[in-house]
Amino acid sequence: MKKVLAILLAGMMTATAFAGCGGSGDASSSGGSSNASGGSSAKASGGKVDEAMFGDETDITLKVWAPDKGVSLAKQHIEEFKKMYPNIKFKKIDVVAQGEGEAATQLVNDPNKAADVFSFPSDQLNKLDAAKCLSPVSKAFIEDVTATNAESTVKAATLKDSKSKEDVLYAYPETNDNGYYLVYDKKVVSDDNAKTLEGILKACKDAKKEFVMDCGNGFYSCTFAFTAGAVIDGFEEDNETQKFKEYDEDEAVDTLMAFAKLMKEYKGTWKSQDPAQIASGFKNGTLGAGVDGSWNSVADKETLGNDFGATKLPTINVNGKDKQLISMFGYKYLGVNAKTKFPRTAHILAYYLASEKCQQDRAEKLGWGPSNTKVSETEFVKNDVTLQAIAAQSQNAVAQVNIQGTFWQAMGTLGNEMMKDGWKPDDKAATKKLLETTISDVRDEG
Fold first, then answer.
1. What is the three-state SS of 196-261?
2. d(CA 34, CA 15)
């Protein structure tokens, strides 16, 4: 009997398990009349399924959200997807540009007008789950998705269902690269200079070039707090308040002071700007190095050519000791809107877009780091200096999961305060108070 039940469950789809954002959110209810397996004989492998899994869905209309730089390739993948199923009637599948950072907000605000399939970063999972906006990964695909993607990416997209208390995979892993690295012009910064923050800044200043890091953006400026030891560690028992690991406050204060001293010493060299401006900075000759993300790597490479340099983030000297900079690192996923009118097709499409083939294309054409383990082992990925730099930095990073909404602004404020002209980097009491205020603001302790 258990074997029979297992086979039946393997073919069930969660497509309409939720009533939509604000609905029941009972993941254990997946299946019933909405299962899309087409029977136990239906198969799913490598991003392709038996047509029976589409069930009776026809005249299919879907909307897909993709980041600006991924729209063109997403459209190509959609056309390939439609050709895979000649007997399925697709009316329209639109690809619309939508920043991943705002995907969850847009979906929660108006799920009926949002995309059926969309890309989002790992820290937005809790928000989407709380609003019951995600249709969990189809049970027909779980085995393949789990087997073909890095364990960390699957784990980060898995939450316990509030009712069944069972682990539920809520999204399809898309990338294993949502982090940042050091990019530099080799004519300005040598590979040896790139090992330390002090070496980078001196090389840039000597060449009358700038170093860019977005100190007012919590995604980047959390590096100051994390390197100092103030590292987040999920939530407290209330599952809402941000938890921090224990740290040495004196060492943390000294580390923040070391960052602030460099900011002051290299004022005019160290610029706090959006990483989107890094490629143009290299192009117009004003930039020597910067902290950038994988999503901009293609532009950086094209601009610098043979002078393109990339590596993990550098160290900073604190009281005579070099400390590795600790960053934020996460993953990106493809989610299915619980309100979609075509749940079977939406899941089948998300499954395809997260497949080995599509991840390989995105790695080669967009520079995205794959979550698929086979793609990760390809010669292209292994030889890509940017993806290797990001992978190296991921070993010195905090996972971008279980993050309180207040975290981002508080960390951005920390960086902005340290960059202010009037900030005194040798004021230990003020630095201690700034750290305490940052932690309090993250935890929203008023």
1. EHHHHHHHHHHCCCEEECCCCCHHHHHHHHHHHCCCEEEECCCCCCEEECCCCHHHHHHHHHHHHH
2. 7
Q: Are 180 and 275 in contact (CB under 8 A)?
A: yes
Q: Dihedral of CA 11/15/18/21: which sign?
A: positive
Q: CB 39: neighbour CB atoms within 10 A? A: 11
Can you read off the two tokens belonging to residue 327?
């960053």
> By CB neighbour count within 10 A (0-12 exposed, 13-18 middle, 19+ buried), where does 350 fall?
buried
Q: What is the spatial distance between Cα 407 and Cα 405, in angstroms, rounded to a whole number?
A: 5
**Which domains, ranges and CATH numbers included, belong to the chain?**
2-176+331-383 (3.40.190.10), 178-329+396-442 (3.40.190.10)
Residue 434: CB atoms within 10 Å: 19
Which two structure tokens, joined as six digits, stand for 187?
């004519």
* Cα dist from 179 to 43, 286, 293, whole Å: 35, 24, 6
Largest CA distance in the chain: 75
The one-letter amino acid code at 248 reads D
Angle separating helix axes 249-265 and 197-206, nearest 10 degrees = 10
Q: Determine the Cα–Cα distance for residues 442 and 420; give it in Å rounded to an integer.
A: 21
Cα–Cα distance measured from residue 17 to residue 28, given in angstroms and rounded to the nearest whole number: 8
Tens-level pLDDT at each residue, the chain (446 residues)? 333 333 333 333 333 333 345 443 333 333 322 344 444 446 789 999 999 999 999 999 999 999 998 999 999 999 999 999 999 999 999 999 998 888 888 889 998 899 999 999 999 998 899 899 999 999 999 999 999 999 999 999 999 887 888 999 999 999 999 999 999 999 999 999 999 999 999 999 999 999 999 999 999 999 999 999 999 999 998 888 999 999 999 999 999 999 999 999 999 999 999 999 999 999 999 999 999 998 898 999 999 999 999 999 999 999 999 999 999 999 999 999 999 999 999 999 999 999 999 999 999 999 999 999 999 999 999 999 999 999 999 999 999 999 998 999 999 999 999 999 999 999 999 999 999 999 999 999 86
Can you tell me the distance from the alpha carbon of 72 to that of 74, in angstroms, rounded to the nearest whole number?
5
Q: Is 313 helix (H, G, I), strand (E, B) or coil?
A: coil
Whether residue 331 contacts residue 310, with contact meaning beta carbons closer than 8 Å, is answered with: no
Which tokens hold the place of 63? 């909307």
As given in the structure block, the two tokens for residue 46 are 């490598």
Record the pTM. 0.85
